[in-house]
Amino acid sequence: MPDPTFETILYSVEDGIATITMNRPEKLNAFTGRMMADMIAAFDLTDADDAVKAVIVTGSGRAFCAGADLSAGGATFDHRATTEATRLEARVGGVQRDGGGRLTLRIYDSLKPVIAAVNGPAVGIGVTMQLAMDFRMASTTARFGFVFARRGINPEAASSWFLPKLVGIQAALEWCYTGRVFPAQEAFDKGLVRSLHAPEDLLTDARALAREIIDNTAPVSVALTRQMIWRMAGADHPMEAHKADSRAIQARGASDDAREGVTSFLEKRSAAYPNRVSTDLPDIWPNWTDRNFS
Q1: Quick one: fold of 9-214?
Q2: What is the pLDDT of residues 165-202, one digit of tens each?
């Protein structure tokens, strides 16, 4: 059922899948500070709820997210014009934190797989928020645009870290330099999106991918795998991955999940994994540095 405490999104959980739907259709789901806070809170819910095994993010109406709400006009991106409420817990070390980055960093830390079901235009933060998600599945009618230079600003939401890892530096620079809006086919051809879908099939196909994960894998293993692969994207040597792998294998190899995984395979039956992400996720990052903003 939808959570009534959210103002700008719809949140529901069904059969292990949480769906977060940006819900400002009259504004093409334009992003606001309230939407940032609502989405961060929704990911806090998905991490804490063991009934949630995967997350789908989509938009209501004909857009995914048309970027920042520009209703403030020329002062839209001027931190001096933000309200005191907006600044709350956002200004550290004399710098106003980028709201898109606060969201993508929260998604980066997600313990559940995240699927973007891009149902329509995705521009500015509408596309950069997707970069921290694991899969981007797009409607054939979707369009994408890293339009920041055309608005006199720069890429945000930590996209300078995420985007080149997904599509390479050349494509990332072209899209950001030109700021042009491009079709879903180009996004697919250059690796930004996983797959293209007829509009009427998009959510069904996204749920099918989520079910493939949920029905066949151990949630704690998926949570560990997600963090290992994302964190190793910035490692300076494969030894860092080897250390994490070794700690994880040691912890998971002795788990009830591992016993169930092997036993169910040998007995040719579906596995029923007993471990929970909320209580049984091993800490394999003893030397992970503090990433507080300063």
Answers
A1: 2-enoyl-CoA Hydratase; Chain A, domain 1 (3.90.226)
A2: 999 999 999 999 999 999 999 999 999 999 999 999 99
What Cα–Cα distance (Å) separates residue 279 from each residue in 18, 95, 213, 220, 226?
20, 36, 20, 9, 17
> Where in the sequence of the chain do the CATH 1.10.12.10 domains occur?
219-280
Cβ partners under 8 Å of residue 108, min gap 6: 132, 158, 230
Map tokens 């998009």 to a residue: 202
Residues 32/85, Cβ–Cβ less than 8 Å? no
How many whole angstroms separate alpha carbon 133 and alpha carbon 43? Answer: 12
Name the token pair of 198.
Answer: 């007829």
Nearest to 57 by CA among 134, 138, 126, 114: 114
**Global model pTM greater than 0.85:** yes
Per-residue model confidence as pLDDT tens digits over 68-95 = 876 655 555 556 666 544 544 555 567 8
Separation of alpha carbons 87 and 197, rounded Å: 39
* 8 A C-beta contact, residue 63 and residue 120: yes
pLDDT tens readout for residues 202-223:
999 999 999 999 999 999 999 9
Q: How far apart are CA 170 and CA 247, in angstroms?
A: 36
- CA–CA separation, 195 vs 201, rounded Å? 12
Q: What is the model's pLDDT at position 96?
A: 83
pLDDT at position 289 is 56
Name the one residue in this structure whose structure tokens are 């819900």. Answer: 23
